[in-house]
Structure formats: C-alpha cells, structure tokens
Amino acid sequence: MKRAGGLATAALTAAALTVLLTGCEGVQSALDPAGHQAGRIAGLWWLFLGVLTVIYLLVLAGLLIAAIRPRRRGRLHQGPAFAKEPPIERRLTRGLTAWAVGTGVIILTLTGLSYAVDRDVLGLTGRAELEIEVTAKQWWWQVKYNDPVPSRSFETANEIRLPVGVPVRVVLKSQDVIHSFWVPNLHGKTDLIPGRVNETTLTADREGRFRGQCAEFCGFQHANMALDVLAMPRDRFDAWRAAQLSSAPAPGDALQEQGRQVFLSSACVMCHTIHGTSAASRVGPDLTHVAGRLSLAAGTLPYNKGNLAGWIADPQRIKPGTRMPVTGLSPDQLQGVVAYLDSLK
Amino acid sequence: MSARSEKPVIRRDGPALGEAETHRRLSLSWATPPGLWGWLSSVDHKQVGRRYIVTAFVFFLLAGLLALAMRMQLSGPERTLLSPDRYNQIFTMHGTTMMFLFAVPVMEAFAIFLVPLMVGTRAIAFPRLNAFSYWVYLAGGVMLWVAFILNAGPDVGWFAYVPLSGPQFSPGKRVDFWAQMITFTEVAALAVSVEIIVTVFKQRAPGMSLNRIPLFVWGQLVTSFMVVFAMPAVMVSSSMLIMDRLIGTHFFNPAEGGDALLWQHLFWFFGHPEVYIIFLPATGFVSSILPTFARRPIFGYTALVLALFATGFLGFGLWVHHMFATGLPHLGNSFYTAASMTIAIPSGIQIFCWIATLWDGRPRFATPLLFVIGFIVVFVLGGLSGIMLASVPLDSQAHDTYFVVAHFHYVLIGGAVFPLFGAVYYWFPKFTGRMLSERAGAWNFWLFFIGFNLTFFPMHILGLIGMPRRVYSYPAGMGWDGPNLLASAGAVILAAGVATFLGNV
Ligand code: HEM
Ligand SMILES: [Cu+2]
Ligand SMILES: [Cu+2]
C-alpha cells in the first residue's frame, strides 16, 4: 500500500518539476528575476527548497521504512508506555532528542539566512535616484514621476518605465481600499494602505517588459488590476521622459479635431485629463499620452486602436464593474474620439 | 376522593430507595424525553455531538461544492462560468464556511462526544449550555447560507479586510451577515471550550490523574484554552466592524483617525491560533488511531503533551507573519520570522513520535491508518512550505498568491481533514454501532489522496510564477493554463473521493 503511495508521490513530484522548470520563465514570475532584489530572493528560494526537500525526503523515507520494514514475530507490546522503559524506548528517545536538536539548528540557520537576505534587499533603500509615486485606485494605478522641479513632474497610468541599473524609489499610496504592489520579476510585494504611506525600491538589471498585478483583494475587479513595467536603457528612458513632459499634440486632421471636440464636450472631461486641453479631471487615468501605452484599463487589453474603440464603446462589458461608465457616443463620435486619442502618442 | 389525587409519599433518596427504584429514577432524569420536543431539547452530549458532526459535514459538502465551482471557473483562462460578483461571493463563502462552520465546529463536536467518555463521566459539564451552543452555531450558519442563496452573501474574503468591508466600500447587508455569523459561531465555540475545560478538570474518573488522560483529551484541553484566549479578539473586531457599519463609529476609518491595520492585528491574533485550534484536536485523532493500528502504545506521551503546550503557547506569537507586506517595522518582522519558524520544533517532535510508534509497532493497514499516513505525507509538506512563508523575503513574493492557497490547504486538509476522515472510520462503530466498509475506505483514501495532491501541488508553482489568489479569471499566455487545468482535474478526483465517503457512511 505504502509503496504505491511513495510511487504516486514520486510521479507527482516529477510531473510537477517538469512543469516548474518549463514554467518559471515569464513576465510575471518570481523565478525569473530581472532585478537585484528578486534575484536575491530567488536565490534564497532555491536554497530553502533544497534544504527543505532533503528534510521532506528524510521524513518520507522514515515513514516508508516504518511502514514496511520486516517485523520479528512474537508478543505484541503490552501495558501503557509510561509504565516501563524497554531499551527500544530509550533508543527512540535518543533519536527524538537528536531530531529536535537537528530541527532547531536548521531552523536557526534558515532564519539567519532569511535575515541576511532581508537586510541585503533593504540595502538599496536610500540610494534611489528617481522617485515614482503610485496611487492605487479601484481598479487601476495612477503613476506620478516626481521631480523637485514641478515642471519636470508628469503623470501616467498603469505603466512604469525605468532606466536599467538605476534604483528607483516607489512611494505607495491608496485612496480607497488596500491594494498590493507586486512586480515579481523585480521585487516582492508591498501593500498600499489608505491613511499610510509605504515605499519600496526597484532596480532592473536588464531590459525587458514585465507585468505586475495587484495582490491584495480589493473588490469586484481585483483580477483585472495589472500594470506594465518596462526596463529600458538610460538614454531611451530619458527620451521617453522628455516626451511625456510635453502636452498633448494638436489634432492632425479633421477627424481627430472632431474627436477632440467630442471629448471636450461630453462626459469624458468630467473624469480625464489631457494636458494642453481643458480636460483636467483626475477621476480616471491621465490620457495625455494614452496611445503610447502598452495596454488599456490596467492590463485588461493590449493597446491598439480596435481595443481602444471597444473600451470606450462599452467598458462595462470588457471590465464589468469598472468605474468608467458607458457614455453612449454615436458611432461617428466614437470614431472621432478614437482617432483623436490614438494620435496622443 | 379518587385514588389519583393521592400524592405518593416521596422519600427523597438514600439507600432506603432500593436498587430498582434508584435505577428507574436516574434513568428518568438522564434519558432524553420522548417525541419531537424531546429530540429538540435533548442535552445528551452524545446526541448533541452527533448532531454537531452531521451539521458540520453538511457545511463541508456545501463549501466543497463551491470549491468545485471555483475550480471549474479557473480550469482555463478567461472562462465565464461565474460572474466576478458570484466568484467573489463564492470564494468568501467557501473560506468562511470551511473555517467557521466546518473545521472548528467539527473538532468541537468530536470533543463533545468523546471527551466525557474518555475521562469517564456521565455527561459533559453544563449540558444545557452545550445544547445551546449547537443551536447558536446552527443559527449562524443557516443565516449566512440563506443570505448567500438570496444573493446577499459576503464578498470580501474570509478575513474581510477593512476598509473594503467597511460601510463605504461594501454598502448593503452582505458584510453584516458575515460579521453576525462570526459572533454566533464564536459564542458557540467559547461555550464548548468552557465545557471541555471544566469536564477535564472537574469530572475525571477517580484515579485518572492528568498524566493519564488520553492524548486526545490533552489535545482538546489545550485547544479549548486557545479558543478562550483567541476568540475574543475576533468577536471584538467583528463587533467593531458592525458598529462602524451600522452606527457610524470610525474604528477602522483612516479619514476619521481610525486605523485599517488595527483590523488585521485583531483578526490575525485570532486567525493564526485558529489554525492550531483546528490542528491540535486532529493530532488527538492521530494519537488515538496510531497505537490501535500500529499495535503498540504511543511513543513519547510526555513529549507529545509538551509539544501541545509549546504549540498552544507559540501559536499566539506569530500573527504578524500574515502582515509582512503591510510595511511594519523590519526588525519586528524578523522577530516574527524567528517565532514562526520555532513552531516547527514541536511539530517536528510530534511527527517523530508518530513515525516512531509506527516503526516499533506491527501495523495493520486499515483505513484509519491509511489516513494517518496520508496525513503525515501531506501535512509535513505543508509545514515545510510554511517555513518558507515565515521568511520575510520569501513571503514578500509568495504572500497572497496561489502558493499560499497551496500551503494552507496542505496544512488544513492534510492536518485536519485527513485525520478527521481517519477518525470517522475509527469511531464510526462507536457513534452508530455499525462498521464502515474497508474496501470503500481504501478507495476513499486513494481517490482523496491522489486528487488532493493533483489539485493543490500545482498551486505552489502557480503562485511562484505570478498568479495572485482571489482572481475570478486570468489572461491566457501567462503560463498558468497547464497547472490550473491540472488542479481542476484533481478537484474532480478529490470530489470522487468525498463521494465514496458519502456512499460509505
Ligand atoms: C475539498 C476540497 C477543496 C478545494 C477543491 C478547495 C479549493 C479552494 C480554492 C481554489 C481556493 C482559492 C480561491 C481563490 O483564491 O480564488 C480556496 C480558498 C480557501 N479554502 Fe479551500 N478548498 C477545499 C477545501 C478546503 C478546506 C477543507 C478548508 C478548511 C478547512 C479550506 C479553506 C479555504 C480557505 C480559508 C480559503 C481562502 C478563502 C479566501 O481567500 O477568502 N478549503 N479553496
Ligand atoms: Cu488592487
Ligand atoms: Cu487587488
């Protein structure tokens, strides 16, 4: 019986390991680190996994042998255990003591290692050269690049771009419920809690596109509250940053101009900002450079013109419960608005 | 004057009564009164215990059906079987029901039935309080489920974090039902704990000193003390939530000087001990079943009792490991890492003693023993992933992902449901006078064991490769499809295992 159990477990483990080894690369994986902190944590993870697997196998082996080892025939034990102390009892007690001490030593070592990595990961705090302020809202991320010179600050949404190799301080706030900021390829998570200000530090070691996702249940659309993280070389980052500082470009043709009129004269202005126009509300994401983003509605849809039109036409179908209402634009109006927004690179 | 109105002379008691008359009178006062009313008003601990067990299993099945629904929804990316609103209610109801209406009550139920028998007393202390606790518990559970069926089920998770569960973000009655249910079930749990403590301390048979009570009774005794210290925290916090919601207090409202983290501290001060409240009675099952089927007295009675004490004590010093991501001071977090890891020592001792008992015994692999072996295989893995989660850096990645879902099902199902099934097979004849089929028992075990691992092992991987918990759907192309499908298939096998169990009883 037990042997079959061991076999089943072994088969399961093997199957699981295959999945594990093929699956750990990914845009949202703690096992595919692209940053200093995530790298240290992943290292710690493999170490813990190694040590604890050995312990697990020891326990399983002990259990297996205990279950199937050959027994001497003869009398069964009799009487309560505490009444007598046969030699076997003494040997087992010695085994127990060794086991407890062994567990203690391993626990102590693992605690020490964990503490060391914790310190190391925190070591980057204070060396940041760039500050980003992330405010979580039900169910999207407002992202502000703060600069001591106010005219060099700007705002975007659901997207963070970082220069490779530069520690970035991320200030975390929430205005409604608790959310959690998590970009596993770069670092572990930190909660955003109303009434408190938290912070974390990110450093990307290589270029790449990563995905982050809200990790604390925050209501109806918790599942669709993701963000894109782009790590890029310093010069490309600076160029992007300079472009973000500019106001929205003027409409390039009549359709776009019509779209701008519609945007500014319909409900959109009550919630959105487009710098360079009269739209300056902050209920929803800043749309000044919306067409330059990688995705729409907090990672719900990849950015393209079709998806943009689909979103504006019926956000409630794409992300039920989202705080953006259906605005009931006519097809003509919609076409104009989409053309206009799609020109806001 | 008619003969009827002649009152018999009652001699109160004493040897003068005679044996037969004493017996008749005692039977009259101990027996359950006849009829429906008698059935309803019964205070017999065996009857109340059985009632508790059956009710708890009904809740287990209901919550299990919800789990199946979740697994169907998540079997592939972007499935639309359940709406977001339904899904959020369902995972909340599943967690809440499993923790508050199944796991804790079923353990109490076994205590109510078995502890008086084991310490050799006729009835549990405070039998009326005992019956009362059952009805309060039932009322809480029924209220919650009726609300759910009427689409007013709670939808904020089983730990109902504020401000999401507060008046501003959860208007309506949903969370009120949840908070009220907490109060009901916690009153029941407190009542039972007091009964168990008094029964064990005051009603043991002559000669049964504390160092001779069965390990099952020790487990229930330590658990009862834990309940007495832990449950008030959640009753206080859920009452504060009710006040915030219904009479406009601001305990948890940061805008008015309240604090969102206060809820988390209060909840987890209860919530962490809660898992030991579920696990320690289960260790009692294991320590009862093992010697019987290993055919050897348990090894390390004293060590096992001390391990219970240590767990019961340390269990109160760990709660912050649920809050590592909230930005509390780092040095403090490190303390909770150390404390959380320390609890592995008593657990390790227990595992050693059980394996040693088996080692030196001459085991007969009946169904209860199979479940005990399954318990060790599964629970130890859950304990080891717990050591990972105790580490602040590792938890910062694994927290609130499917890794945690895997971990706590390994410890809760491994640590409580496996022993529980073993206990049902073991004590069924005592409860009902009938043996369960051994053949069906073996099927039950293997389906459950294999299904369980298929369902929950892949979730470890899912968490590490980025899947957060409590999501009603997920995009394709994240590498999550395979493990999710495997988990859903496993859930079907798991359900077949539970169905075999139902067929058997
Ligand atoms: C019978 C088989 C079971 C299956 C297939 C199952 C499945 C699941 C799944 C898939 C989730 C995650 C939902 C999500 O995060 O979206 C979950 C959550 C949970 N389960 Fe289970 N479960 C089972 C049994 C149990 C048992 C026996 C317990 C407790 C004794 C339990 C306690 C919980 C808790 C507390 C949660 C967390 C709910 C929350 O996030 O608020 N489950 N279960
Ligand atoms: Cu969120
Ligand atoms: Cu969320």
Automatic annotation (TrEMBL), chain A:
Residues 254-345 form the Cytochrome c domain. It is found in: Membrane. It is a multi-pass membrane protein. Gene3D superfamilies: 1.10.287.90, Cupredoxins - blue copper proteins (2.60.40.420). The chain crosses the membrane at residues 42-68, 96-117. The keyword Transmembrane helix applies. The keyword Ribonucleoprotein does not apply. Residues 127-243 form the Cytochrome oxidase subunit II copper A binding domain. Its EC number is 7.1.1.9. Its main location: membrane. Keywords: Copper, Electron transport, Heme, Iron, Membrane, Metal-binding, Oxidoreductase, Respiratory chain, Translocase, Transmembrane, Transmembrane helix, Transport. It catalyses: 4 Fe(II)-[cytochrome c] + O2 + 8 H(+)(in) = 4 Fe(III)-[cytochrome c] + 2 H2O + 4 H(+)(out). Pfam families: COX2, Cytochrom_C. SUPFAM superfamilies: Cupredoxins (SSF49503), Cytochrome c (SSF46626). GO terms for molecular function: oxidoreductase activity. Belongs to the cytochrome c oxidase subunit 2 family. Subunits I and II form the functional core of the enzyme complex. Electrons originating in cytochrome c are transferred via heme a and Cu(A) to the binuclear center formed by heme a3 and Cu(B). This is cytochrome-c oxidase. It comes from Azospirillum melinis. The lineage of its organism: Bacteria, Pseudomonadati, Pseudomonadota, Alphaproteobacteria, Rhodospirillales. The gene is coxB.
